[in-house]
Amino acid sequence: MSTLLIPAFAIAVAGLAALRWNTAKQVPHQVGRRPNGALRLPLGETNNGEANDRSGSPVLSRQDALQQARAEASAYAAQEPVQAFARKVRSLRPEDLLDRFGPSASLHFGTAGLREPMGPGYNLLNTVVVVRATRAVLGHLADTLGWEALRTRGILIGYDARQHSETFAQAAAVVCASHQVAFALLDRVVPTPLVAFGVVQQQRCAGIMITASHNPKEYNGYKLYMENGLQISAAVAKQIEARMRSEASSPRERQAELLFATKELASLPRQSVETLWQAYEQRIRHELYAPMRFDSARLQIVHTALHGVADDYLRRLFAAFALPTYTPTAAQQSPDGDFPTVPVPNPEEGAAVLRLAMQTAEQLLRSNKTNAVVVLANDPDADRLAVAELAPQTNPRWHIFHGDEVGILFAWWMLQQVEKLGKQRASTEMVFINSVVSSQMLGALAEHQHKLRCRWIQHYPGFKWLMEVAVAQTRPQQQVLLVYEEALGYALGGLRSGTLPVNDKDGIAAAIVAAQLAYFCHQNRTYGSLQGLLESLYRQYGLYLQHSGYLRCRDFRTLTPLFERIRQRLASGELVLFTADDGCGGGKPLPPRRYQIQSVYDWTRGYYCAYGCEPVPLSLPPQPKTHFMTFCIRESDEHRLSLQRQRRQQPRQTPSGDRSRTPSSPSTPMKPASPSLPADADLRITLRNSGTERKLKFYSELHVTRYSRLEDRDELRKALDRAVRAFIEAFLQPGLHGLEYGTDR
Is 527:533 a contact under the CB 8 Å cutoff? Predict the structure, then answer.
């Protein structure tokens, strides 16, 4: 087993051995200095993608800027075919006009393209912005591939069921037509993975997908795939963004925008989705089909499309795999861009979003039609998958699987299928890839395989980065089986061809594999359920518990000084310990729980550092435009030893007068001792800002080597949750920096 990360364990161990821990009493969330325990992280100014105006352009007075913004708004309203947007221009206040149509009003074109709220303005998503983006994309493709190739091979254009998605897709097609570029505008809503697949299958120069994935209903987006089916690189995104800004002021291009409003969008030629779908279905079945018999009495599957596009396509794929028909969540299966039954159409939000699907599943159980149910949930553009299970015979409670848990189950399943095929040569290396914020358990699974040679690779979050690594690993002696990230994105490798069917995350293919795996587990006496298989893997490789969530950030500009203060305090020897007060346990006061930060991965700067050691460069390139750090933590021994002493001192005799009672009986309640992290537990906490939303995300994983009982997991999860909350309060101080807690997972 190998990995792309080189954390220099020898140096880390030497640094930890040099630590001299001070056992003096600490005030919660305050720490003392550690002269020999400072983290010597590189300090200095970091540009985290915040705007700096260095163009040297003249600064307009407010009056001149407002006059220019009014002229821009008037021109925009004349060009915009979405009348709801055009009408809103008249009601904009002066400050809104400056914000949306002023000199600095523009959108950032990232590696995922554009994703913003819809509305009038050059910093929101609308038809005019889509026109400008498409012109810039065509200009870049012409420079790199040539106009002849571009006009011959053309562009594939798809769209989801969000409000105005079809209009935006038509606008992109109109721009292609005006440049004599061939285009294939699909004739109905499609999943995003189908466009990524179609670009390669049809040998297109690029693919455009109009979608905002799992964002709120007010959003839409413009996603771009290159000819290899991958999302664009950061360098390409920067070039396209520069073109958008330069061409926006061109008189010739402005005239083209004015002419656009007169186009008959409905008369554009369309390409049938059917041919593309049949090619996709055939490829997925060839690569991922596992023949077996299915017993609906043991298990039934419930699916929710969350008002997206998945249902029509997944139902057909179930039939192609000879799987029993799933039960739909009736209120959520039809495409509806208003998403009326969910606050946000994001399956990562857990029970709040899966509520109707879980209720549908519970009705099946009450009707005695099955012994257990599994819920599969796709997001609106069907590139993500969430899984939940209710198996009353083994666990009376719902279990909503974390993205890492699903990833580990997929990895195990893919290895089983490779072994069954029996055609792999001993020299072939099976490759697993996940992100640095995803579970370390994937590495343990890969390392302990004896029948197959396996390699584990980690890279930065974001499926674009992971897929670039995956494509680079596609060689005759290597076979990529799985690429995943904890945010419910999965790409499953071809079991027979050794190549990935889709070079992006694919919630449709993931759902079909999850269904096969679920039926296998529920028909297998050894496992009995998906949870049973997961417990078996925990006993074999150790327990890995995840706890993730996010903090809403009002102003991203506050994050740069916040992260810099963290580095400075660590470098000066502060915040070596942070504490959380548990109050009382077992009827007696307990000392505050202490957590020791042993080392830090500073992904922003590109260094790994342990106490008392010089920083060691990481093999992955720095991420200077992202706030991104990982902290490796262990709980202090002091609290654990005190808790053990207290338990030994608890009286064992029963109360006088009633020898039949025990201390744990209801009539003699005793407050349980606070759960404690085991001595061998390792905790990793990562902070990273989102690239598409105003969120500071946190990811954590607790690894316990020895694990045998399901009952232990709840206690350990409480300890994990407490450690994460204490860490956030000590390091980030949300109340002082305008951060608000969002959903935890």
Answer: yes
Separation in Å, CA 181 to CA 141, 144, 271, 555:
11, 15, 15, 41
- Residue ending a domain, choose from 211, 238, 271: 271
Domain with residue 128: its CATH number is 3.40.120.10
Q: What is the CA radius of gyration of the chain?
A: 28
In a domain? residue 486: yes
Q: What is the pLDDT of residues 497-552, one digit of tens each?
A: 888 999 999 999 999 999 999 999 999 989 999 999 999 999 999 999 999 888 98
Strands 155-159 and 183-185: parallel
237 and 332 in a single domain? The answer is no
Does residue 438 fall inside a structural domain? yes
For residue 546, CA distances in Å to 140, 532, 549, 684, 734 come to 42, 18, 10, 10, 22
Examine the pLDDT at 449 and tell me if it is beyond 70.
Answer: yes
Q: Quick one: pLDDT band at residue 13, thresholds 50, 70, 90?
A: very low
What is the 3-class SS of 169-233, one letter each residue? HHHHHHHHHHCCCCEEEECCCCCHHHHHHHHHHCCCCEEEEECCCCCCCCEEEEEEEECCCCECC
Contact partners, residue 434, CB within 8 Å, separation at least 6:
407, 442, 458, 466, 483, 484, 485, 486
Calpha distance 360→347 (Å, rounded): 16
The pLDDT value given to residue 714: 80
- 313 and 202 part of one domain: no
How many helices (H) and strands (E) the chain has is answered by 21, 25
Mean pLDDT lowest for which of 17-21, 63-67, 587-591? 17-21
Report pLDDT for 344. Answer: 92
Query: Sorting pLDDT into bands at 50, 70 and 90, what band is 21?
Result: very low
pLDDT for residue 636: 63
> Is residue 661 in a domain?
no
Same domain, 358 and 411: yes
d(CA 73, CA 66): 10
What is the tens place of the pLDDT at every residue in 288-318?
A: 999 888 888 889 999 999 999 999 999 999 9
**Neighbour count for residue 472 (Cβ, 10 Å):** 11
- Same-domain status, 610 and 480: no
Is the domain of 501 the same as that of 549?
Answer: no
In sequence order, the β-bridge partners of residue 459 are: 435
pLDDT tens profile 664-694: 333 333 333 344 667 678 899 999 988 767 8
Question: Is-contact 219 116, C-beta < 8 A?
Answer: yes
User: Considering the chain, what is the average pLDDT of its residues?
Assistant: 82
| 120 and 134 part of one domain | yes
- At 495 the pLDDT is 83
Q: Which residue has the higher pLDDT, 335 or 32?
A: 335
Count structural domains, the chain: 3
Last residue of a domain, one of 541, 559, 580: 541
- Residue 12 lies inside a defined structural domain of this protein: no
Residue 255: DSSP 8-state: H
Q: What is the dihedral of CA 465, 603, 705, 729, to 10 degrees?
A: -120
Please report, for residues 108, 171, 178, 295, the alpha-carbon distance to residue 245 in angstroms, rounded to integers and kept in the order given: 10, 19, 20, 58
Are 303 and 392 found together in one domain?
yes
Q: Cα separation of 610 and 616, whole Å?
A: 9
Q: Which domain holds residue 724?
A: 26-43+545-645+669-741
* Same domain membership, residue 300 and residue 364: yes
